[in-house]
Amino acid sequence: GKVTLPVILAYRRGSKAERTFWKRAIEDNVTDDAGLEKAIGLMTRHGAIADTIGRASHFGEIARDALAPLEETPQKSALIDVIDFCISRVN
């Protein structure tokens, strides 16, 4: 999957030099080990990964709450499984 939100958060929270790194990394499709290590470090430093996991969990709970009033059916169970799968991918 795409790691969009952590990159956006790290970019917005970063210094001017860090934003320059992100622009270059995205425009040049940087995939070397040093570039990836720096990107992960910036996302970690700015709490982007933790915040993304928190947001995913939050919206998963909202989705579960929206399904709560529905009667127990295989379809509802399948939707809950999809929510759980999506959240497990984030962790």
Shape: elongated
Helical amount among residues, as a percent range?
Answer: over 70%
- Helix vs. strand class: mainly alpha
Task: Characterize the largest beta sheet: strand count, sense, and whether it forms a barrel.
Answer: none
For the record, give the distance between the C-alpha atoms at the N and C termini, rounded to a whole number: 13 Å
Q: What is the total domain count?
A: 2
Unreliable sequence segments: none
Number of helices: 5
Q: Give the integer mean of the pLDDT values.
A: 94
What's the total number of strands?
Answer: 0
Radius of gyration: 17 Å
**H and E string:** HHHHH
Percentage of residues in strands: under 5%
Layout of helices and strands:
Layout: H1 4-13, H2 16-27, H3 33-45, H4 48-67, H5 74-90
Helix pairs in contact: 1-3, 1-4, 4-5
Explain this structure.
It is built from five helices and no strands. The protein starts with a helix and ends with a helix. Helix 1 packs across helix 3, helix 1 crosses helix 4 (48-67) and helix 4 runs antiparallel to helix 5. It has helices spanning 4-13, 16-27, 33-45, 48-67, 74-90. The chain has two domains: 4-49, no CATH class; 51-90. It is mainly α. The mean pLDDT is 94. The longest helix is centred in the middle third of the chain and has 20 residues, at 48-67.
Task: Note the main attributes of this structure.
mainly alpha, 91 residues, 79% helix, 2 domains, single chain
Report a brief summary of the structure.
The chain has five helices and no strands. The protein has two domains: 4-49, no CATH class; 51-90.
